[in-house]
Amino acid sequence: MAMSPEQPSAPRRSRIALWLVLLLLLALGGYAGWHQWRAREQAVVNSTQQQVDALSERLNAMRTEQRAQARRLQQADSLNRVLRDELDGITQRAALLETSVERLADPDRHGAQALRLDETEMLLTIGSQRLQIAGDLDGARRAYALAAGVLDGIDDPAYLSLRQTLLQERTALDALGADPRVRAIAQLDAYTQTVTAPAGREERARDERAPWWQRAFGNLLQVQPTDRAVAVQAADRAAALAGLQLEISLARAAAERRDTAGYRDALRRADTWLQRLAPDSAARTQQRAQLQALAALPLSLSVPTLGSTLQQLRQLRAR
């Protein structure tokens, strides 16, 4: 008779089922706990991230405010420097005003006398500058005359030598006569009228005095020495005359600006054109001598004593 396997008893099956249920409950509880722990951990992470973001925003705001504060500090520093410079300027002006008041209040220097000395110094400065910079001789004379009139109103005997120096300087200015530049230009204009105008008249007169065959065939054939540099043809003479007039105009312009080198170079070139206009003769020699005399004329003013009165006045006021 065959034997069947032993069947588990009912209590044992119930225990196994109970254990299975317990294991299932434990698994469910562990999963629930793990899910809850993950949710809590995620909430903590989110909260931490929010705090970090908030701190970053606050840090950015603080940096922006710091930069704004730095800009305001720079502006305040710049303003302080400007105010300091203005304060230094005001202090300097106050010191100058105080010095001026002390000078005017000095019993040894009357206020009216100080003003007259200031006016005299200004007029002397204007006169010397007009003569040195602009070459205005008449303007310098008028300025020195006004300075002499102002200086005569000071009755202090300490300035007697200053009046004598001013008188010597005015005498030197009056001794100059006309401005050398004006004199040179006038003589140059007169020379131009005596040289260029007769050249055309001589050419026309020579053409009228020429014989009929020379007037008829002069443009076709003309005999002259080969070593002669004088222009004979009408076109050559016109070109030479135009060159002479141009160089004289250049010399006049150089005289206007007191350019001695340019003035003499232009007259030297004008002498070359003059030799082309006429053959060697006593008249041409005289014209060339006049041209050389014009080139030797001075263009600048020379006053050795210029500025001596101004220098002496400044020395007296310094003492």
Task: Report on this structure.
This protein has 319 residues and is mainly alpha-helical. Among the domains are: 110-178 and 304-318; 180-206 and 229-295. The protein is built from 10 helices and no strands. It has helices at 10-105, 111-134, 137-152, 160-175, 180-209, 212-217, 234-256, 260-277, 282-295, 308-318. The radius of gyration is 55 Å and the shape is elongated. Pfam families: HemX. Its EC number is 2.1.1.107. This is Uroporphyrin-3 C-methyltransferase.
Structural descriptors:
transferase, disordered N terminus, mainly alpha, single chain, 319 residues
Determine the N-to-C terminus distance: 161 Å
| Model regions low in confidence, pLDDT < 50 over at least 5 residues | 1-6
Shape: elongated
Q: Count of DSSP helices?
A: 10
In sequence order, what are the helices and strands, one letter per element?
HHHHHHHHHH
Rg measurement, Å: 55 Å
Query: What fraction strand?
Result: under 5%
As a percent range, the share of helical residues equals over 70%
Largest sheet composition: none
Query: Structural class of the helix and strand makeup?
Result: mainly alpha
DSSP summary, beta strand count: 0
Mean pLDDT value: 78
